[in-house]
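Dear colleague,

Thank you for sharing your sequence with our group. We've completed the structure prediction you requested, and as agreed, I am returning the results in plain text so they can be pasted directly into your records. Please verify that the sequence below matches your submission; if there's any discrepancy, let me know and we will rerun it promptly.
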Amino acid sequence: MKIQENINSKKMKSINYIINITLVTIGIAACNSVASTEKKRKKDAVNNYKLATVVQRPLGGSIRLPGSLAAYQKVSIYPRINGFVQRIMVDRGSKVRKGEVLLVLEAPEVTQQYYAAQSKFIQAAAMFASSKDNFERTLATSETPGTISPHDLALSKAKMLADSALMNSEQANFKAQEVNLSYLTVTAPFDGVITERNIHPGALVGPDTKVDDKPMLLLEQEDKLRLVLQVPEMYSAQLADKSTISFEVNAIRGQTFQGVISRQAGTLNDKYRSEAVEIDVQNANRLLKAGMYTEVLLPLKGSAQALLVPSNAVVTSTEKKYVIVVRDHYTKWVDVEEGNHHDDSTEVFGQLHVNDQVVLSATDEIKEGVRVQ
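Please find the predicted structure tokens below.
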């Protein structure tokens, strides 16, 4: 009886083993069938990819960059000589014209030196006039033989020349003192507005005078401004000279202003790798203020060496940007750098060639080495 039970137990184990093996086989077959179906589905998807041709031509476009407005001309006003402030004709906000008197200084020693130099010049001029007249008379008399010796004639001429040199020296000194005297009156070097006044009558001032590290007066030209912006290195070669740009001012919403590209630095900033560009802005109504921040729409002429692809052909991952090129019926990732964008086209730079075929609507799900029919 026990023998029969052992035989039955062994038979049951054998049956269970066969059943398990059968189930595993069926599972593997099912997985292979699913994998085969998935591969076939992916293969069908690859066959349906749309391709575009890479072309070469410059792509004009535009970029938005931040900028700031600055006065077209700006100067700190200092006197050329030391003196006491006698009168100030302007204050903060005063509009002045070129040559208009801003302040008058008082320096008695400068005035005395001027009058002393004037007196010496007048004296020297009188001596020269006398010696010149004497020489001319002596010369006229010497025409009669035996009346004037050659030695006396030479002495008369030498005296005239010496007095002439002395007069010229005194005249130069007088002119210098005259210039110094003119420095007591400080005038505006150009049309503009006084934006700072840090001095008052009675103060002793000079060429190096500062009040709390500020200049005596600050003059700025406001009817014309400079819009200064930093253009990144990759766009600096694409700017067109004298092109018109549009910009908006953060403080004045709803208005668009225009200017003309007037100057480029011609060199890149070592720290930011950008080029300084200046745009002249007419501001006759003085609506814009120096120091305002702007957003500039900068037109670009594009790069003649750029290759163009549809914008949706560029894949952007966390590590890089690339396009998927089809070569010999297989996909290949090619790293690129983007340039200008316009409508649905993008400039790219990389190991691409004209007439290459790239995948449209590319994603990072499309791997390298996939066969494309």
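Summary note from our side: Residues 12 and 162 are 146 Å apart (CA to CA).

Kind regards,
the structure core
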